[in-house]
Amino acid sequence: MEEIESKEANAPSRLMTIAAVAVLTLVAGGGGWLAGMLLAPPPAEKTEAAAELPANATGEADIPKMSEVAHGIVQLDPITTNLAYPAENWVRLEVALQFDGAPDVALAETIHQDIAAYLKTVSLQQIQGPRGFQYLRDDIQERVDLRSEGRVTNVMFRTFVIQ
Predict the structure, then answer these.
(1) How far is CA 140 from CA 94, 101, 127, in A?
(2) Segment 31-37 mean pLDDT
(3) Spatial separation of the C-alpha atoms in residues 74 and 95, rounded to whole Å
(4) Exposed e or buried b for every residue in 16-38, given b needs 16+ CB within 10 A?
């Protein structure tokens, strides 16, 4: 008799526990949604400058290639070359140049060739790790500054891959 009474007493408590957990889950989910709606910033509107740039399939603004120039930024063609040592390692680098004033495509092509020639003199040990990458960036920025005589204000690294 006692066994039957204990099973009957456990059944409502299990049902109540499941119901309480379900209600608390719904309350927590609703509270999280409400907090997210209150704290999250609204989606950004397209600015006039961003609306002028063409968008690619992913919605990102395209930076013009060397033959195209917009907003003082010229994206150089990708540079793929082998390193000085070990010669079997290759590097691929995509760089964009920000000009102060009107962009010069001929100067951008000269800078492209200069960067490609410089990369052929770099060894893998020189560019390993974050510090090596920073040294590479600084060296390329210095070469661009010298070549452009200050007309290029910023060198933007888009991709950098070593294989």
Answers:
(1) 12, 21, 12
(2) 84
(3) 9
(4) eeeeeeeeeeeeeeeeeeeeeee
